[in-house]
Amino acid sequence: MSRPREYSDERIFQGIHSALSKYGYTKLTLDNIAKEIIISPAALSKRFGSKKNLLLFYMDTVIKLTTQSFVTSRSVSGSKLHALKSLLIQSLGKVEDAQTLANITSLFIESVSDIDFLEYSQRRLQLINEEVQYFLRAAIEDGELLNIELDQVETTARILQGAIAGSLMIWLNNSTRTLEQWLDDCFNIILKQS
After folding, report:
1. E-state strands within 20-61
2. Whole-number Å distance between alpha carbons of 99 and 95
3. What is the pLDDT averaged over residues 170-185?
4. How far apart are CA 138 and CA 131, in angstroms?
5. pLDDT at residue number 93
6. d(CA 12, CA 127)
7. Can you say whether the dihedral through the CA atoms of 90, 94, 100, 103 is positive or negative?
8. Closest C-alpha among 41, 38, 59 to residue 50
9. How many CA atoms lie within 13 A of 3 on its CB side?
10. Hey, what long-range contacts does 43-46 have (CB within 8 A, 24 or more apart)?
11. In the prediction, which pLDDT does 4 show?
12. How far is CA 52 from the centre of its chain?
């Protein structure tokens, strides 16, 4: 019988997230991740083998959590646009300040230079894109979104995501408005919702 792990995947994920939020990708080390979990760097190294494998675990967990969030949001009755916006606001609500957002984002920006990270990042973005398209289609079919045709969903989803990502980057340097206000602007202007 194998020995149970002392440190759950959830605890390790939270430790990575906390360390990444504080240090960003370039300053992230096994040591500062281990300090967040209150575990030895050797124990992390023994389980994952390397910082890269630990971050691949983190990215895989992000994909799983994103999938779960979308599944939950799909089951919410009522406005599909409200469900989508609420999910996005909830995910942004975990970002306390511009530095935290920059640090978390740094992993996904850095992913373009590593083929393994890039694969996970692309899977995550594809998942988000497919789900945004689902919610837009559902809003059209429910009569909630009248100014967009079904054949415009793919383009509209891409533009909405681009606007949101751009708003996040602007917020890094101008956080006088909340992320929720920026998100509202994206929905209101692109989807002509008020």
Report:
1. none
2. 9
3. 86
4. 10
5. 64
6. 23
7. negative
8. 41
9. 3
10. 43/7, 44/12
11. 44
12. 19
- Total Cβ atoms within 10 A of residue 177: 13
Which of 92, 159, 168, 105 shows the shortest CA–CA distance to 132?
Answer: 159
Over residues 48-73, mean pLDDT: 95
Dihedral, CA of residue 36, residue 70, residue 155 and residue 172, to nearest 10: -30
What's the CA gap between 190 and 156, in Å, rounded? 8
Indicate the pTM of the whole model. 0.89
Say whether 50 sits in a helix, a strand or coil: coil
Average pLDDT, integer, range 68-93 = 90
Digit-coded pLDDT (tens) for 146-174 = 989 999 999 999 999 999 999 988 888 88
Nearest Cα to Cα of residue 88 among 194, 192, 185, 189: 185
Q: Which residue has the higher pLDDT, 69 or 176?
A: 69
> How many degrees, rounded to 5, is the angle at CA 93 between CA 88 and CA 95?
115
CB 99 within 8 A of CB 22: no
1: its two tokens: 């019988």
In this prediction, residues 169-186 reach a mean pLDDT of: 86
d(CA 13, CA 37): 9
